[in-house]
Write a structure and sequence with these properties.
By secondary structure, this protein is mainly alpha-helical. It has three domains: 4-44, no CATH class; 79-187, no CATH class; 202-395, hpI Integrase, Chain A (Orthogonal Bundle). It has 17 helices and five strands. The strands form two sheets. A three-stranded antiparallel beta sheet has the order 1-2-3, covered by helices on one side. The chain has a two-stranded antiparallel sheet with strand order 4-5. The longest helix is centred in the first third of the chain and has 25 residues, at 81-105. The chain starts with 9 loop residues before the first helix and ends in a 7-residue tail after the last helix.
């Protein structure tokens, strides 16, 4: 009699094999994963294969049991710290509004952990109409939506993961109120202008080189050059991504093959768009190469990278790439063994622009993608360099070249 497997297409079988555990695959297909088979062979070889027993059988060890607090802490660590801080802000605004209506109108609001769906929908309607900034001004429409999304995120974290303000029928009245208020705010002119970082133009970068703010003339300039070039050529964005760069094992490696141009290769391990979580398990790491520029050795990233590493102390920490400059550098050592913090790294480009009298909102973030677009690089290749996973995300950095 034909088995059920005989009627399944190869595509369905591939999907089943991908989603099933190793033991489930064994039950369905009768095939054992080679790694599991090897472990079983090791564990049962004495009894099943009449082999000479080892002098001492190794006992499998496990991690100590975690208590509830440790489990909760581990769960929360999966949420980015910036998202947690943003959630806390949104909930604080809600709690301040609740305290206000309690004082002004004598209305008590059930805590978010315990509030019913009906009460929550009713109170959210009032909240979007009445909430204000600390200075009494109205929130722009997108900020209002942001506050509501933060409150929803908090409720989901606290044990109601299926609640959805924007789809559940119980919140239909609230959605009408939110829609009406966002339209009113937009019509009043709020939210028409958004704060957006400007890329560093080639002329502005040249200004930094000419002023000695970039280069190898002193420890601070060399350190800042590493930050700017890692952002420009490997599209590292936030200060945290820069801070996650290590000395060992380093994500950036130098390749020097005889007869070929030396180059640096950056292999991403974690970033904003690739956190290493379950949903990212099939996302390929970003890999970018940057080649030596022998025609301009003073500004060659490959040579400056080697110079920077040669001037770091021998006892430098393995978990940090950027090190604080020494107040009194020596000819062989310019940097201490103290890591530069992510906030300092995040503000590097803005600080350099202030020192060079370059105006506008500048960050480490936007220059790489814009330069690639202006050079006519294909969008898919731009995404491979920047690590963006959607066209809309990378197109936000598309600017008209001047």
């Amino acid at each position: 009699m034909d088995s059920l497997l005989d009627f399944l297409s190869p595509e369905i079988m591939d999907l089943l094999n991908e989603e099933m555990s190793d033991s489930e695959q064994t039950l369905v297909t009768g095939q054992v994963d080679p790694a599991i088979q090897q472990e079983q062979l090791t564990e049962h070889s004495v009894h099943d294969y009449n082999l000479e027993p080892p002098t001492k059988r190794q006992k499998r060890t496990f991690a100590p049991r975690k208590n509830e607090d440790e489990v909760m802490k581990a769960k929360l660590s999966a949420i980015p710290s910036k998202t947690m801080a943003d959630t806390k802000y949104c909930v604080n605004v809600w709690q301040q509004w609740c305290a206000h209506i309690s004082t002004e109108y004598g209305e008590e609001v059930t805590p978010l952990k315990e509030i019913s769906t009906q009460e929550l929908s009713t109170k959210l309607c009032l909240f979007v109409f009445e909430v204000r900034k600390q200075n009494g001004e109205e929130f722009p429409p997108n900020s209002l939506l942001h506050l509501v999304a933060g409150i929803q995120r908090y409720i989901r974290i606290e044990g109601r993961p299926s609640i959805d303000f924007f789809k559940d029928s119980q919140f239909s009245e609230f959605r009408m109120c939110l829609d009406a208020e966002m339209k009113r705010l937009r019509n009043s002119g709020l939210g028409s202008k958004t704060k957006k970082a400007q890329p560093l133009s080639i002329e502005e970068e040249e200004n930094l080189w000419q002023r000695g703010l970039l280069g190898k003339s002193n420890p601070q300039a060399l350190l800042d050059t590493m930050v700017v070039m890692n952002g420009l050529y490997f599209a590292l964005r936030s200060g945290k991504e820069h801070r996650q760069l290590r000395f060992s094992p380093c994500q950036i490696t130098l390749h020097k093959n005889e007869g070929d141009r030396p180059y640096l290769e950056y292999i991403e391990d974690t970033s904003k768009n690739r956190t290493g979580s379950l949903k990212d398990r099939k996302v390929q790491p970003k890999i970018v190469q940057h080649y030596n520029n022998p025609s301009n050795s003073d500004r060659c990233f490959v040579q400056l990278f080697q110079l920077y590493n040669s001037l770091c102390p021998t006892d430098r920490p393995n978990n940090a790439f950027y090190l604080k400059p020494l107040a009194k550098p020596t000819p062989t050592c310019w940097f201490s063994s103290v890591a530069v913090g992510h906030c300092k790294l995040d503000g590097t480009v803005a600080r350099l622009c202030r020192e060079a009298n370059i105006t506008g909102f500048r960050t480490n973030h936007s220059t790489a993608a814009t330069r690639l677009y202006n050079a006519g690089v294909d969008e898919q290749q731009v995404m491979e360099v920047t690590g963006h996973r959607s066209l809309d995300g990378v197109r936000a950095y598309k600017h008209t070249s001047k």
